């Protein structure tokens, strides 16, 4: 009987222990939502197990000929930038030959992620009634990839249409404006409150920079982390990658 592909969640990794802890919490939520799905986690750097190590282990599991054959590798990324376009495909091309590995799309953009951002803001003290008087800084890690920057700007434009006073993108690295600059702009615009919504998945160096930049804001939301909406997006991307139309990496 054929098995469904293993879901391999590919995380960047970090020296900050909060990063791996958050990734594992998100993976636990995914497993709870789909108990019969085998979900593994691999890191590109800093943490173990490595992506390469997980792939080798999966191939060894199937050494009898009846085990793992198909893997869907899902980048735990919010935009398509360097890691999704170069790093991850390069690692997946080195997978053992007996495995058929398909790379799923990145998580963003998705309406579910915007919903998760709003829930984090409400957890931080806002309510839906605050939307017309509150300006929001959509604070991402940043990228030198123009496609990734354009996606963040478009999310901000679309999110503004849901009733916020204003929404401005900001970046912790590589691009401008910085979080503190966007906070200042929203103050000057006349928004009664200013909130910062980190569009990042886990704590770490750049999210900490976002938090420092939010010092002048009224509200700082938590990172997306293991939000149920994020877990749902993971499963959506996994299901889409299982379709026959998706080309195997290196094919």
Give a description of the structure.
This protein is of the alpha/beta class. The strands form two sheets. The chain has a four-stranded parallel sheet, with helices on both faces. Strands 6-5-7-8 form a four-stranded parallel sheet, with helices on both faces. The longest helix has 17 residues, at 17-33. Helix 6 runs parallel beside helix 7 (205-213). Strand 5 (134-140), helix 5 (146-160) and strand 6 form a beta-alpha-beta unit. The relative contact order is 0.17. The protein contains eight helices and eight strands. The chain has two domains: 6-107 and 228-241, 3-Layer(aba) Sandwich (Rossmann fold); 125-220, Rossmann fold. The protein is 40% helix and 17% strand. The chain is elongated and about 60 Å long.
N-to-C terminal Cα separation, in Å?
Answer: 25 Å
> Would you tell me which CATH topology of the largest domain applies?
Rossmann fold
The counted number of beta strands is: 8
Judging by the overall fold, what is the CATH architecture of the largest domain? 3-Layer(aba) Sandwich
Biggest beta-sheet profile: 4 strands, parallel
Order of helices and strands: EHEHEHEHEHEHEHEH
- Give the domain tally: 2
Q: Tell me the strand percentage band.
A: 15-25%
| Total of DSSP H or I helical runs spanning 4+ residues | 8
Overall structural class, as computed from helix and strand content, comes to alpha/beta
Shape: elongated
Q: What is the top-level CATH class of the largest domain?
A: Alpha Beta
Radius of gyration: 19 Å
Major beta sheet, strand line-up: 2-1-3-4
């Amino acid at each position: 009987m054929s098995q469904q592909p293993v879901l391999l969640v590919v995380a960047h990794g970090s020296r900050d222990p909060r990063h791996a802890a958050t990734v594992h919490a998100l993976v636990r939520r995914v497993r709870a939502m789909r108990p019969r799905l085998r979900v593994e986690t691999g890191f590109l750097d800093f943490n173990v197990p490595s992506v390469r190590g997980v792939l080798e282990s999966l191939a060894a599991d199937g050494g009898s000929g009846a085990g793992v054959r198909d893997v869907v590798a899902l980048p735990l990324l919010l935009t398509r930038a360097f890691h999704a376009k170069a790093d991850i495909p390069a690692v997946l091309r080195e997978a053992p030959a007996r495995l058929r590995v398909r790379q799923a799309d990145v998580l963003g953009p998705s309406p579910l992620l915007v919903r998760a951002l709003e829930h984090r803001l409400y957890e931080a003290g806002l309510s839906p009634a605050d939307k017309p008087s509150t300006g929001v800084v959509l604070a991402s890690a940043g990228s030198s990839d123009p496609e990734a920057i354009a996606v963040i700007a478009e999310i901000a434009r679309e999110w503004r249409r849901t009733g916020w006073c204003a929404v401005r993108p900001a970046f912790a690295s590589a691009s401008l404006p910085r979080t503190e600059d966007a906070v200042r702009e929203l103050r000057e615009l006349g928004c009664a409150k200013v909130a910062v919504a980190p569009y990042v998945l886990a704590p770490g160096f750049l999210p900490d920079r976002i938090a420092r930049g939010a010092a002048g804001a009224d509200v700082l939301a938590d990172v997306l982390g293991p939000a149920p909406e994020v877990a749902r997006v993971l499963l959506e991307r996994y299901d889409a990658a299982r379709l026959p139309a998706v080309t195997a990496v290196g094919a």
